[in-house]
Amino acid sequence: MSERTVVVVGGTSGIGLEVAKEVVRRGDRVVLTGRDPERTREVAASVGEGATGVAVDISEPETIAASLAGIGAVHGLVLAAIERDANTVRDYDIARAKRLVTLKLVGYTETVHTLLGRLEESNDTGIVLFGGRAKDAPYPGSTTVSTINGGVEGLVHSLALELAPMRVNGLHPGIVGDSPFWAGKPEGVLAGYESRTPGGALATMADIVGATMFLLENRGVSGINLCVDRGWRIT
To answer: Residue 77: CB partners within 8 Å, gap ≥ 6?
Structure first.
C-alpha cells in the first residue's frame, strides 16, 4: 500500500463509499468521513486495511477543524457529502435551505481551508467537489439544490485559481440509476429518464467513480465542471 492518502468527505454511503473503495483498491489509503462516529468506524473497517474513519459534520463548519485535527498528509480530497432537499419558493423552508447552503458552500470550503498545510502543494494533488446537474437542469422543488450546485461551479473556479498548483475540479452527476436513492424508486420511474439519454441508459455509480478518479489523478485538468449523465437531455 502506498503512502498516498485521499480524504473522502461523505464516504460512508452511496457514491462516496464507492469512491473510498476504489481508492483502496488502487493501493492508496483513504480517510472516509461520516456524521455518526460508530457507523463511520464500521464502514471504514468494511472497506479494508487501508481505510480509516473520522466523524465530522460539515453542516456545522465551526467543528470541522477539531474533527479533522488527527489527519496527517493528504494527497487528494473528494467532497462528496450531500443532502437531498425538496424546497420550493412557494413553500420555502428557511431552516432546510440554510443547512444545505452551509453544508456544501461553507462546509466544503472550510474543509479545504482546514486541510491546507496538510494537502501536498503540487500538481499531483487533486480536489473534487460534488455538485449536480440540477445546477442547469432544475426540477420542481430544486430551488435550493439548483442554486447551491451553481455555487459549487463558481467555487471550483475560485479554488482552482487560489490553490494552484493543486488542482480543483467539480463533478456534476445526473440521475445515477443504480445508486441507493434511485434504485429504490417504484418500477417505471426511471424509464422516462432513460428515454432521454442517447443510449437509453442512465449513468451508473461506476461511471461517477471513474470520473472522480480521473479528476483526482489527471494533472492536465483543473478548474473544470464535468457533467456525468450519459448525454441526458441532449435528445
So the answer is: 6, 7, 9, 111, 112, 115, 119, 125, 126, 127, 128
Angle between helical axes of 94-101 and 143-163 (0-180°, round to 10): 20
Work out the number of other CB atoms within 10 angstroms of the CB of residue 140: 7
d(CA 131, CA 39): 25
Highest mean pLDDT: which range of 98-102, 146-150, 157-161: 157-161
pLDDT digits (tens, 9 = 90+) for 25-73: 999 999 999 999 999 999 999 999 999 999 999 999 999 999 999 999 9
Nearest-CA neighbor of 58 among 1, 119, 103?
103
Q: Supply the pTM of this predicted model.
A: 0.94
Closest alpha carbon to 36 in 54, 20, 18: 54
* Distance separating alpha carbons of residues 170 and 8, to the nearest angstrom: 14
